[in-house]
From TrEMBL:
Keywords: Amino-acid transport, ATP-binding, Nucleotide-binding, Transport
GO molecular function, one term: ATP binding
Biased composition (Low complexity): 242-261
Chain intervals with Acidic residues compositional bias: 262-272
GO biological process, one term: L-amino acid transport
Family matches, as PROSITE patterns: ABC_TRANSPORTER_1, ABC_TRANSPORTER_2
Organism from which the protein derives: Actinomadura spongiicola
Family: Belongs to the ABC transporter superfamily.
Protein name per Swiss-Prot or TrEMBL: ABC transporter ATP-binding protein
Location of region: Disordered: 242-272
């Protein structure tokens, strides 16, 4: 396994946020974590990336125990993250934001920069525009592109569709599939369980800091309990097909309306 999370416990003060999470992600997979707000999804990602400390348990990456490894060294080891809320640098240009994703690299990042612009043509069009003046969908593309600049072996994505219009949601999920097709493993946290389960290979359902169910993603689409709790009762056959990956890049550049001022198309929301 590329990433192994073994019985991890995490506390916020005296409050237990994670109560023994165990999960794994194999090389080449898309694995998704689904669950309600407060289930522990974002905390799990933050713990993997080193932003939260373990109370107990272990995290192994690429055969190495990284449980006590500082976050910046985890980036160098091959863990990249596009955080919830995007976290771009609003006063920097698109290109400067992207290059910040490669700040720890000692080699030439021009190949990855070109690939980011190929994956997100909208960013290429706006490479000199300040990140803070872009729409929410464009900022999400920028956050993902910045994470890819570090050449991660596994990409952690936290709520990439949050607050985006439906057309943009489809584009973002298509791009995630394309990123995976190009060789990057993905661990995805997502409130849009329908879309997440459609593109993922496997999934874990979290409730109050614990894993309560794990299975191939397609199986969970037709699981009665999962349907009732997260899919509005719809079965897998009732869900819209995942968008065509081949058209993702061109669609992404065509559909997100230009914005001269911050036109944030996300809604307020949080997930822990």
């Amino acid at each position: 396994m590329l990433l192994e999370i073994e019985d991890i416990h995490v506390h916020y003060g005296k409050i237990a946020a994670l109560k023994g999470i165990t999960a794994s992600v194999d090389d080449g997979e898309i694995v998704t974590l689904i669950g309600a707000n407060g289930a522990g999804k974002t905390t799990t990602l933050k713990t993997v990336s080193g932003l939260r400390n373990l109370s107990s348990g272990a995290i192994r990456f690429d055969g190495r125990d990284i449980s006590r490894m500082p976050g910046h060294k985890r980036v160098l080891a091959g863990i990249g993250q596009a955080p919830e809320g995007r976290g771009i640098f609003p006063g920097m240009t698109v290109e400067e934001n992207l290059l910040m994703g490669a700040y720890a690299r000692k080699d030439d990042a021009s190949k990855e920069l070109a690939e980011a612009y190929e994956l997100f043509p909208r960013l290429a069009e706006r490479r000199t525009q300040a990140g803070g003046t872009m729409s929410g969908g464009e900022q999400q593309m920028l956050a993902i592109g910045r994470a890819l600049m570090a050449k991660p072996k596994v990409l952690l994505l936290d709520e990439p569709s949050m607050g985006l219009a439906p057309m943009l949601v489809q584009q973002i999920f298509s791009i995630i599939v394309e990123i995976n097709r190009r060789g990057t493993t993905v661990l995805l946290v997502e409130q849009n369980a329908q879309q997440a389960l459609q593109i993922a290979h496997r999934a874990y359902v979290l409730e109050t800091g614990r894993v309560v169910k794990s299975a191939p993603a397609r199986d969970l689409l037709d699981d009665p309990q999962v349907r009732a709790a997260y899919l509005g009762g719809a079965s897998g056959d009732d869900l819209a097909a995942a968008p065509d990956v081949a058209s993702a890049s061109s669609a992404a550049s065509a559909s997100d309306a230009p914005s001269a001022e911050p036109a944030d198309d996300r809604e307020e929301g949080s997930s822990t």
